[in-house]
Amino acid sequence: MADPVANHEPVIDQMIEVWASTVSACEQLADPQWEVATDCPGWTVKDQLSHLIGIERMMLGDPSPPALTDVPRHVKNEFGALNESWVEARRSVPGVDVFGEFVDTTNRRIDALAAMTTEEFDRVGWSPIGEVPYRRFMETRIIDTWAHEQDIRRALDRPGGRNGAGEQVVLDRCERTMPFVVGKRVAPPDGSSVLFVVTGVLGRHALVAMESGRATLGPVSSGPPPAVTLTMDQDAFWRLAFGRADPARVVADRQVQVDGDIALGYRILDSMTFMS
Q1: pLDDT in tens, 12-42
Q2: Is 31 helix (H, G, I), strand (E, B) or coil?
Q3: Which residue segment(s) compose the domain that 133 sits in?
Q4: Contact at 8 Å (CB) between 12 and 114?
Q5: What are phi and psi of 255, to 5 degrees?
Q6: Are residues 93 and 208 in the same domain?
Q7: pLDDT tens for each residue of 36-82
Q8: CATH number of the domain to which 206 belongs
Q9: HSE (CB half, 13 Å, CA atoms) of 230?
Q10: Phi/psi of residue 215, each to 5°?
């Protein structure tokens, strides 16, 4: 994996950090380890890398594999089917070879990013979160890659890659999305608020308040107490938001503490998934 580049765009070094950590998670695996199932339905450890390869090769302009003639049940949309075609194309490829392709592909992407101008990073275009500047689009690549790295590490019981650039970007995205979860999906009464207490190195307190039918993030103040407080560590926070954890299970395992309006708290936990 290449060293950090002399470019003024911080997102490049953040991306390099996450790619390097993903490489570390997959080094020196025995053949059976590549076929271990992960939290993503239908995907093994090798399939996770195949997916990441596919996205980055598309970003490089490489041709996509043929479209699938038989789409698996876990694929929910056209973009998912495109992702699955990259995975399916590597199902018969040894894991060590897929790993080598991942290293090669990400190094090519580093070279391509390092060659981009500020104007190119400013350019607005398509992304999974709408029309945004390219540097903001790259944040979605950090998020996707870090989440799949953690899927790999969890499946292999190889913890690591925590509390760095990837997790910071992921937790920031989760925090920014909680007003959508609370306001649009749950819609508690105006004047009420929900406090997310996230513990850990990158923890934070996020207060979501309802006013005029809208939910907004605001500072934790000495005003009226929140209707419900949800306390969890940062791992439970992002895993619930990314559909990697079952709300009932995390409550049963005491990974989440619900104080105040218990019913409201459970409704929020059931509605937290916005990415999977």
Answers
A1: 999 999 999 999 999 999 999 999 999 998 9
A2: helix
A3: 10-161
A4: yes
A5: -85, -15
A6: no
A7: 999 998 999 999 999 999 999 999 999 988 877 777 777 666 666 77
A8: 3.30.1050.10
A9: 27
A10: -110, 135
